[in-house]
Amino acid sequence: MGTVLIRRGKPAQPTTAGTVLLRLARQVDLLAAEAMAELSGGGIPDHEMAPERAAVSVVVNADSLATWFPGTFTLLAQDARLELEVLRADESVSAELLRSGAAMAAVTTDGRAVQGCTTEFLGTLRYTAMASPAFRKQWFAGDPASGLAVAPVVDFDRSDQLQRSLLRSICGSEVRPPTHYVPDSSQFVRAVIDGLGWGMVPDAQDPGQDSLVVLDPGWTQDVALYWQRWKLDSPALGRVSTAVRAAARGSGLLELTSV
């Protein structure tokens, strides 16, 4: 081809041109597996070898994986022609995984389609500022904004902007309260319940039973979710997309208009 495809290193990495070819190879593998499955009729051939299964890799952000996305598992459970790989990653890397071919589809907060992909709006995940009852009593007995400026806060990781966005809008950019980092969606909520700090909790993860209380009814944030997938005529990818849409519709995601 007259161009370098591999960049030397430990490990070796594909160049931009190499990434394009790698993605093409994975797309061809997917289509070839589907063609072989169709030719075998979906059954076990006489020589008792299992039919080809189409492997579909999907990137999902942690909060979606902890709330509505598992609804796709039930819908795909009886699909013997499919092997599903779920990659947990945040939005900062999902686009690169799509470009490189490491993932064929992604749940993302970015509605701008990656080159070679289509995108569609799934719904909106609402987050609400919450804390344990004892934490609210300790830190928010007076003016809520004053409490927010000094109360310990729980972030998912150092790139998490949900809590930071609320702090900036209510208290200004110079506020630096004590911050804890808990990079797991379920344990993030556990940390808030246990009083480590306050946090923006997806409404779908509110356990109820008064273990969490709302700090202020106006302290919410709506995060639009999109489904991006390769622009490829793949029956397997189409079946996964159908399951994702159905799971999003049946999960209680808000159907707010995408902007």
UniProtKB/TrEMBL annotation:
Keywords from the named record: DNA-binding, Transcription, Transcription regulation
SUPFAM superfamilies recorded: Periplasmic binding protein-like II
Domain LysR substrate-binding: 75-247
Keyword check for Membrane: no
Domain of life: Bacteria
Keyword presence, Kinase: no
GO terms assigned for molecular function: DNA binding; DNA-binding transcription factor activity
Name of the protein described by the UniProt record: Chromosome initiation inhibitor
Species of origin: Arthrobacter rhombi
